[in-house]
Each structure stands twice: as C-alpha cells, then as structure tokens.
Design brief:
The structure holds 2 protein chains of 2 kinds.
Chain A (H helix, E strand, L loop, with lengths): L4 E10 L3 H10 L5 E5 L16 E2 L8 H11 L6 H20 L14 E2 L9 E2 L5 H14 L4 E4 L1 E9 L2 E9 L4 E11 L20 H9 L3 E2 L4 E8 L13 H4 L3 E3 L20 H13 L9 E4 L5 H7 L1 H9 L9 E10 L2 E2 L12 E3 L16 H19 L9 H13 L7 H15 L3 E2 L1 H16 L10 H23 L8 E2 L13 E6 L4 E5 L5
Parallel strand pairs in A: 1-2, 1-9, 2-6, 9-16, 17-18
Antiparallel strand pairs in A: 3-5, 4-5, 7-8, 8-9, 10-15, 10-19, 11-14, 12-13, 13-14, 19-20
Chain B lengths: L1 E9 L9 E9 L5 H12 L18 E4 L2 E4 L10 E3 L5 E3 L2 E2 L2 H5 L14 H7 L10 H5 L2 H4 L5 H11 L8 H7 L10 H5 L6 H15 L5 H13 L10 H4 L3 E2 L7 E6 L2 H5 L2 H13 L2 E4 L9 H5 L6 H14 L4 E4 L2 H9 L6 E4 H8 L7 E7 L3 H4 L6 H10 E5 L12 H4 L1 H18 L3 E4 L2 H10 L4 E3 H18 L1
Classes of the chains: A alpha/beta, B alpha/beta.
Chain lengths: 542, 485
C-alpha cells in the first residue's frame, strides 16, 4: 500500500530550525529541494528561542586557534577536533552570509558586529541581536528561504526515514490530520534539532522530542556521546508550568550575579576565577549543589540578579528577559530572577564527517541532531554558529551527491501502516506515559548520575516502551509516534551514560571516581547503533 | 491547583457545517498560562482538540488565539476562568488552528544587493520594527484587510523595515503603495494587539507614506487636502459660518469657575459641525468650565501626518502651541479625537492636553436628566487607542441614557485619510458599523469624534450624536421636567 501524498526531490531537508533552513537554502543551488517541518517554517526548533548569541572570531586580537582551544577545553576534549576546526574557521563566513541577507545584529560605534563575553571563552566573541539573537537569525533565514524555490511542506511530522538496500531514500511523515506523506529523495538531511523534552524540565520548544535521533537509529545510523546532555544553569522555576524556560546566559554575560538564598555569591566556591562566566556544566552543578544542600529559594532555585545594572541597560540588552519576566510578575530591573538548571542541549548525536555525511549512505546531518562538535559540554554561542556552519555544509554535501534511481520500498510503507494501525487499538494514555518518561529521566539521568539510578531509569523506559499508546483519533497518531521516539532517545541517553564510566563535562557519574584530567581520559566517544555499541578507548576523538 | 471553565471554539471545516463551542472544566497549577489549560483539555478530556504551539516562551508566534475577542499568545497569557477561546480571524484549519501560510507569504524578504554596509544608526532605526514574531494577531484584527486591497500590518511593518535597510536592493515604497499602503485607516488596532507592542501605524505606515510623498506617490485626493491646509490653515472647506468666527476669546461659565481650559476647536467642529461645538459650550457653561478660545489656532496637522505630507507640519505645530501659550493656559481641551491624539502624541506641548470627556469626568458634572433612549457607543480609534480613553465616555453616557448597549470597538473607516483617499474602502467599513449598530437595536449612536460622527451618519439610518449633544439634551430634559412641576 502506498501513501496518498508522494513527493520527489533531489534533496530532502527535515527540520526548519536554523540548521535546516540554512541547509535547504544551500541545497537548492544544486537541485529540487523540499524542506519538511513538523511546525510552521522557522517557528519550530530551538533556534528561534536562542537568546544569547553566535560565536565568531571577527577581531584582529582574537584568533580561530583560541576559539578552537576554548571549544575543546569547554568540551572536555571529547569534541571531534576536525569538526571544531571547521566550526571556528567558518563561523565568521556564515555570520557574514547572514549580514548580507539582512540580519539585524547589534553593531559597535565603528559599525562592526558587537560582541559580548560568554562563559568559558577568553575573548568576548559572542555576536548578538539583543537577547533575541536566534530569533533574528531565523527571521533572516526564513525571509531568504522565501526568495528561493525550496518547496516547503509544513506541519508534516517525519516518523521514519525510508531506506532501500541500505541507502536512505527519503522519509515518511504524517500531516496534521494523520495522513501518511512520503518524500523520495536522492539525499536526505536530518536537521531535526535536539530532544531534551525527554526531561521533565527543559528549555526546548515542543518540537524537541528527539525524533531525529530515534529515526536515524532505527534506520541504522550510528550515534555518539548521547549521554552528553547539557543542563543549562539558568532556567525559570516559576510559575510551575513554565519552569525550565530559558534564562539566557547573556544575563550573566551582561554582569548578572548568582546568589544563594542567604545572599552569598556562591560561584566563588566553585570557580573563583571565572565566577558566573564559568562553563555551563560547572555553573549548573554549582546551582544544583546549592539547592540540594539547602541554600536554595522556596521555589528550589537560586537568585540571578541584574538590579545593579542601570534600568536602561537591562531594557536595551535584555529586552526579551525583561518582557518575559514581567509577564510572570517579576520586574528584573528591581528584583532578582529565580533560576535553576534545566535540560537544554544534546551534545551527542549522529556521527558525521566534516561534510556532514553520517554513517548511512544518503543521509546527512547538521545542527543539534549531529554529534561530535561540542564534545562533553557546549559553549554558549557555539550552537547558533554550529547551525549555520554545518547547515551550509550539509546542504552542499547533499546537493552535490549524485542522483539516485532508488525508489520507495513498498514493504517499508506497509510496515509503517501496520505500525500506525496498531495505535487506534492501543490501551495506554500517551500523555501519562510521556509524563512518566520525563520524570524518570529527570530523576534517573539528570545532572548527577549513578549506575543504579541509570539502571532504574532504563527499566522504567523499557516498561513505558512496552505499553501500547492509544491514538483516540487519526490526528493523535503523531503523538504516539513522538512518544515512541522520546522513549528511544531516552534509552540511548541512558545506555550511553551507563557505558561512560567517568565524569566528564556535563556527564557526572557519582559512583565512579575519575582520576584523570579530561584531556587525559582513556575514553573517546560512546557509540550506539543497531549493529554495535560501546565506548572508544585510546583517547578523545579517535 | 485551581479549577477553571473555558468555552472553546470547535470546528472541522471538512466535517462540520457550522462551528460550535464546547465548555471544559480543567484543573491547572497556579500561574498557568492559557496554553497549559489547553494541554490539560487535550490530555485529560478531549484529545480531538486542535491547537498550535511550539516554543512556549512567546518567541515563535505559533499559538496566538483570541480570548474573549482579544488576541493573545496562549503561552504567555495567564489563563482566566470563564473566558471564551477562539481562533484568530483567519481561515480555520481545525478548531483553534488557522491557516497562517497566506498571511506569512505576504511578508516580503530582503533582496540582497550584495553591497551596502549597514551602520549602527540604521540598525537602531530598524530594531523597533524587527521584534515581530509573525503571530499574525495584527492581520487577524485589521479592519482594512477585510474590505480593501491591503497586504496587512505585518507586511507593511516589514516593508518599512526593508526600506530602512541599505542592504536591500528593492524599492519598497512603490511596492507598499501597490500593496495597499493607503488602505490603512491608522486605527491602531494592530498596535493594540501586538504582543511585541510594535507601533505599526506610527512607525511603519505613516513613515512609508512620508517616503511615498517624497517619491510623488501621494494619492491625488490627499494632495488636495495638503494644499487646502497650506492655503487656509484648515484641512477642509467650511460649509457654515465657522465656530471661531462667532466665538468670543473667552466664554465664561454660568456659575462658579471650577477650571479654565483652552479649547482647541479642530477643522471639523470649526467649519462643518459648529453646532456640535456650541452644544459642548453650553455643557461647559453649565458645569463651571471657563473656555479660552484663541482665534489664531489652525489645523493640528493630523490629516498631513496620517497621509505622509509632513513638510509643513512644524509651522502648524508652532502656531498652535504659541496660540495657547500666549493665553497662559496650562490645560488644553480637544473634542475631536483626531486632534487630541495628534496633540498628545505628535506634539511636544508645554501644556497638558485632555479630551472633552476627560474634562467632564475630571471636574465632575451636574447630573443631567435621564433620556428615555437606548444608545450604543462608537469608540473613536483616536480616542480609545490613540489616547487610551474608553471609560470616561461610557461613564458620561450612563448618566444620561436610560439604556446603554455595547458594540465591538472597530474602526468606522473615517481615519487615516481613507475617507478622502479611498472613499469606497471607508464606505465599506462604515457599512460594517451600520450592521453592528443595527444588532444593538439602539435608538442612537454616541461618539466623540467629528470624523466618526460624520462618516457613520452617512452609512447608517440610526441618528448619530456627539456625547456633548446628548448631555445637553439631558439637561434640557431636566429643565423641562423641573419647569413643568
């Protein structure tokens, strides 16, 4: 049985965040390109929510080698050095593209792109548009996309990659009504972003459910370092339903200080040199420790304070923060914010080459769904740069790939239909299962981890995965597929976390003593695929 | 935790003939946003409910819906018990989900010129127009879009943003004119509903019209208005003996003086509707307000600003400010909403400017007699949104009319130069008002703006009255009754 709605193209791009749109713009130079997005174009993903900035070496007294060193050291030397090299070298070129296309970044009095200091970097190299940098990038990209002949399929959620003889030949998805859509392509780019919505508390948009990791794993791709989940130090804690909402690092970049409930500037005990501008893993652990040891606020956070800044400065540099907190009844010009760590970014993902080729022929990956760029901890400002640098490379790589005569394998479509047909007969409430999964991940695979907790989480994930979620209506099929993807992604995180028997970057194993400095670790990437799993030994990046 | 009840719009255009409303009671946490209540409905009660959302932090513009008729971002707006949740006024895909694509495609992109370095001052000029999250709340509410050829507020905002950018190779001004730049009535509803508070009429529409003026693209009918102002100091030709020709420089009240206010007459009350201005004078005399009326005052310049013909604006501003400064008044009253909005927002006056309804409620009035009338009130855009005044007129109307019924505050079409420039668009909006007026079953429509009053009169059979005329009738009724006793 075939899908009702079939499309064909040279390059298929899945995902309409910063990486996906950048990839589509580039790919369209080489042939028919389709961009498929489970949200309205540009409105999904996390790029539009990214606030702080974009790292690029732009000044004579900065250097790409410094940016690379900062990125590697911030990443606890788990990064793939070749990918880091590409990132730092091409980030300035890609920000220049954005400027040419009309991006409205803040400029200095000399009409150069303004830069602010961000955590873990020795030079203020974070370019910004107030605290709506990601939104600015997305608007620029969406406007540019509209001028290309990329065909956009909006609100189609990809549920699986299509394969034919071991080659990826496109994807299948569900439209808003739950009808199957297939797209055959010579090359497919996965730009689906991250997946920290698998945690109870997360900064991610609703689309951050890890679908790309899950689809790629099911298709046979290899993923690396899936245990490396960045907990952003500063997420909102109140009101309850909006907890986890990102409070940008720019707040600290602009001089915001962290205080515990007794009023102590506690970062002096964790990183006296860099204080609030230490790397995210360090600051997140410091806040979590303060709260665990009873020095937190009633809402379970710490204070983040900018009241010492001039009100005008807050209004100009942090307008979105000001607006969002005002909505929740807090005037940050006059009172401190309350913050606590929140699941933010997946450093791990598909193993890629510098051309964004994955381990599966026909499949490329870029942006958060790809692994290896950020190692064990990502620097603030490197994600937006990542989307543009590797988005362009993926578009180029996929665009230049040769035409393929491989079609859609009917047996796979039949299997998909069979999978979907089971959901209306399901018995479990997907919303409840989702909640259970998120809590299990937060308690079992959070900032501080032990083998025991991780094993418990894995058992819970397996139990949830064994349930049969029910689609009450055809339009609820997507929720069931998403739940399955979340479970699979969660299990990849936990399995990788169990494999990595060391504390490194964002991954802290309290039950294992780590006696080496990150750079001297005997371990490289953890890896997971249908065929093999393990941890590389003999040093990072090998 | 708290329980609350919401009434939610339900519609599947492929299956249902008509939209319907369903009522749900859900339990939410303290501080929950509307989105969290929709999640609760979907997850706990009715998985068939369709609604769109994504970032959850007011940045992606996916989740705009209307709560009791007012657009909000569901993820940012605190949910309120007993409210009605409806989709934006866009084609409905399903329930609260609308088809946003056509609206989004109206928004033009930058055409890279490949050259042209942008400067900091240019960036700073663009920024206030750049916060748009394309939620289309403005498009949902724009009255002009429903009756004329108009790409809409979001597209005009973008056109201005591009016009300010040296990196853009296209000529945005003629394009904006083709896309309906002169169709906007500057009713400011778009600004009122914008979650990012982007002042589209003032910062985009009127600025684009200024640029159009410099390119010779002003509508011919608007050119005539500017010539008229230049020649006579007035935006319209008078059809009667003007108010200023007859009015003394000071009009004393009948009793004790409670306050002295300067009266800024405005072109319409001066030359077209002087009788209404005289009604106002009687109301003021009865309530202890001394009016100071400098005869050398001229047009406030509003018709020029709204149509982008601002070259002689400074001269008008100076003449008007000087006229009142020389009389030593520190309070100047307008009774035309357009003049009031202009004096408040486009002037820097050394005196305070207040609307006639503010004066009357500020100093208090003698209660008029009750008129046996059912009336409704038309909110002038330049009063409600231009000056933030909506309660004062209602308070006054309730004092005099036996029955008061509300109608939705939508532009009548008279503003923004549309009545003079594109009369068919203004007429269509006026007809829309007539429909709403008829729905109320009112005996009379009350307003506080000569443009609205004049324009609505032309489009409805129901009598239209200025609020001061209504008050005066109330006093006459009272006097008759006491005289008869």
């Amino acid at each position: 049985m075939l899908a009702d709605d079939c499309h064909d193209c040279h390059v298929l791009v899945i995902g309409s965040g910063g990486a996906g749109i950048r990839a589509a713009i580039e790919a369209s130079k080489y042939g028919d390109t389709i961009l498929v997005s489970k949200t309205l174009t540009g409105k999904g993903g996390c790029t539009t929510m990214a606030e702080g900035g974009y790292n690029a070496v732009l000044r004579a007294d900065d250097a790409c080698s410094l940016h690379a060193e900062d990125t590697l050291s911030g990443g606890a030397y788990l990064n793939d050095p070749a990918l880091v090299e590409v990132l730092v070298r091409e980030a300035p070129e890609r920000v220049a593209d954005l400027m040419e296309w009309g991006a409205v970044f803040d400029l200095t009095d000399e009409d150069e792109i303004a830069q602010r200091p961000f955590g873990g970097q020795r030079f203020p190299r974070t370019c910004y548009a107030g605290d709506r940098t990601g939104h600015e990038i997305i608007m620029t990209l969406v406007e540019h996309l509209r001028s290309t002949d990329v065909e956009v399929l909006t609100e189609v959620a990809v549920i699986d990659l299509l394969r034919s003889d071991g080659v990826v030949t496109g994807a299948a998805g569900l439209d808003r009504r739950g009808e199957l859509v297939t797209i055959r392509a010579d090359s497919t780019i996965l730009a689906t972003g991250g997946g920290t919505r698998i945690y109870d508390i997360s900064t991610n948009s609703a689309s951050g459910t890890g679908d790309g990791f899950a689809c790629a794993y099911r298709a046979g791709a290899e993923l690396i370092d899936m245990e490396m989940v960045q907990f952003h130090p500063t997420g909102a804690v109140y009101p309850h339903d909006a907890r986890g909402r990102l409070v940008t690092e720019a707040v600290r970049g602009e001089g915001g200080v962290l205080l515990n409930f007794p009023g102590e500037r506690f970062m002096s005990r964790y990183d006296p040199e860099r204080m609030e501008l230490s790397t995210r893993d360090v600051v997140a652990r410091a806040i979590a420790t303060e709260v665990l040891e009873g020095r937190g606020t009633i809402h379970g956070g710490v204070y983040l304070d900018v009241t010492h800044l001039a009100p005008g400065e807050v209004e100009a540099r942090l307008p979105i923060m000001l607006e969002q907190f005002l909505h929740f009844g807090v005037d940050i010009r006059e009172e401190p914010m309350e913050v606590a760590p929140t699941a933010h970014h997946m450093m791990g993902g598909l193993r890629i080459t510098p051309s964004c080729q994955t381990t599966l022929p026909g499949l490329f990956a870029c942006g958060e769904v790809a692994g290896g760029v950020h190692g064990a901890n990502r620097l603030g400002g490197n994600a937006l740069a990542d989307t543009q640098v590797f988005g362009k490379r993926a578009g180029e790589g996929a665009g230049k790939a040769k035409r393929s005569s491989a079609g859609v394998d009917d047996r796979q479509i039949d299997a998909l239909h069979a999978r979907l047909d089971a959901f209306p007969e399901g018995t479990a409430d997907p919303a409840q299962l989702r909640r259970r999964l998120r809590r299990a991940m937060w308690t079992g695979a959070g900032i501080f981890r032990t083998a025991e907790d991780l094993t418990g989480a894995l058992a819970e994930i397996r139990e949830i995965s064994a349930q049969h979620p029910r689609a009450a209506y055809q339009s609820n099929l997507i929720e069931c597929c998403t739940l399955e993807n979340m479970c699979l992604t969660a299990s990849l995180v936990v399995r990788a976390a169990l494999m990595r028997r060391e504390s490194r970057g964002a991954h802290v194993r309290q039950d294992v003593e780590t006696t080496w400095a990150p750079g001297a670790s005997p371990y490289g990437h953890t890896y997971l695929s249908l065929e093999r799993e393990g941890v590389e030994t003999g040093g990072a990046g090998e | 935790m708290k329980d609350l009840t919401l009434r939610v719009f339900r519609f599947d255009p492929l299956a249902d003939g008509e939209p319907s409303y369903e009522t749900y009671t859900v339990r939410v946490n303290e501080g929950a946003r509307l989105l969290h209540a929709l999640h609760a409905i979907h997850d706990e009660i009715d998985p068939s409910l369709h609604y769109r959302y994504c970032c959850g932090s007011g940045q992606c513009g996916s989740c705009a819906v209307r709560v009791d008729g007012e657009p909000v971002l569901a993820c940012m707006d605190e949910v309120r018990d007993g409210t009605t949740i409806e989709p934006l006024n866009l084609p409905v895909v399903r329930d609260l989900v609308t088809d946003m694509e056509p609206g989004l495609m109206e928004i033009p992109g930058l055409l890279p010129s490949g050259e042209g370095q942008v400067t900091r001052s240019e960036i700073e000029a663009i920024k206030p127009l750049r916060d748009c999250i394309e939620c289309l709340s403005c498009v949902s509410e724009c009255p002009a879009i429903t009756v004329g050829h108009f790409a809409g507020p979001a597209a005009m905002r973008q056109a201005m943003r591009l016009a300010l950018d040296p990196r853009d190779a296209a000529d945005r001004v003629p394009e904006a004119v083709r896309e309906g730049l002169f169709t906007c009535t500057t009713c400011q509803r778009c600004w009122e509903v914008c979650p990012k508070e982007i002042r589209i009429p003032g910062k985009a529409i009127e600025k684009l019209r200024e640029m159009a003026n410099r390119s010779g693209l002003t509508l011919p009918r608007h050119l005539g208005v500017a010539k008229q102002v230049e020649r006579t100091g007035r935006s319209i030709e008078h059809t009667k003996v003007t108010f200023l020709e007859e009015a003394p420089a000071v009009i004393e009240p009948h009793g004790e003086v409670k306050a002295t206010v300067g009266f800024f007459v405005g072109c319409m009350y001066n030359g077209r509707l002087p009788d209404t201005a005289w009604d106002m004078v009687q109301v003021m005399q009865r309530n202890g307000i001394r009016l100071v009326i400098p005869p050398e005052q001229v047009c406030c310049g509003s018709p020029l600003i709204r149509t982008g013909q601002t070259s002689s604006l400074r001269m008008l501003q100076k003449r008007n400010i000087d006229a009142f400064v020389h009389r030593g008044v520190d309070l100047v009253m307008t009774m035309c909403a357009g003049c009031g909005s202009t004096l408040k927002n486009d002037y820097e006056t050394p005196f305070r400017v207040v609307d006639v309804t503010e004066v009357l409620t500020m100093y208090g009035i003698e209660p008029p007699g009750k008129l046996p009338l059912k009336v409704t009130y038309h909110d002038p855009c330049h009063l409600r949104r231009g000056q933030g005044i909506s309660e004062e007129p209602r308070e006054l109307i309730r004092m005099v009319a036996e029955e008061f019924v509300e109608m939705p505050p939508i532009c009548c079409g008279a503003g923004g130069g549309v009545r003079s420039g594109l009369p068919e668009v203004a007429g269509a909006l006026g007809k829309g008002r007539d429909e709403e007026i008829r729905k109320t079953g009112a005996d009379a429509v009350i307003s506080v703006c000569p443009f609205c009053e004049f324009h609505i009169s032309e489009n409805t059979g129901v009598p239209v009255k200025n609020i001061t005329t209504l008050l005066l009738e109330g006093y006459q009724e009272k006097d008759e009754r006491s005289g008869g006793e």
